[in-house]
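Q: I'm writing up a methods section and want to include an example of the input and output format. Could you take the sequence below and give the corresponding predicted structure tokens, formatted cleanly so I can copy it straight into the document?
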Amino acid sequence: MALSRVGMGFLGLFFMAGAVLLIFLTLLGGARNTDPLNRIYFLEANTGNIPGAPPVSRWTFWALCSVKNGLNDCGSSHPDFPLDPPSHRNFNTTVNVPHEFIGTNHYFLTSRFMFPFIIIGLFFAVLALFTGLLALCTRIGSYISGLLAWLALTFQAITTCLMTAVFVQGRSAFNRNGQSASLGVKAFAFMWTATACLFLSCLLYGLGGAVGRKDPGYSGREQRRRGFFSSQRSNSVRSQSAANKKESSSYA
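A: Here is the clean output for your methods example:
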């Protein structure tokens, strides 16, 4: 039982560590122009015909970046940067901007809600990573880690679904407008892989707690209780037998 619980706890800890790393990489993509952060983005579009826009634009959590030698070339960074081409936050014009972006807050709100959800999910994931050390040796540690992993998975899944919805729609809008666009493969791969890792970690932490339900120490105590009462019954039987023999000899 102990070895099984340790094995489940270790695997859960491994997948949790992988998820945390991938989420951090996605979250920090575009924050600085250093490798590998300058390779991570959500959406790339040819925006050379939009006044004031770079020839190719990339959206990240922190900035709207141009592209230099195939890498992000970001200026000043701002947290929770939205996908909102017509607004002053992006291009500040509607000229040659796909009509799907004009007169709607859908893209702005959906892309903005990603940031708080990924922060909350990452918070619970880091907690689950630390409590996962307890899951290696205790059943309650497995259950606590499983609960935290489940909370992290919930918020991570929400973030990933919002990301997929808004940037796939944004890509389609640019393509229909004759502006070639594509999704950031690394960001999408990192986020969906992190979601899968969180699911596996949640499952393994739960199994780690379940396989340790029958504690050998508890069985030993039960056996000792049975032994105690059995010895009492044996002593009573022996005393009664001796009394009967004594009574028989007195009659004789």
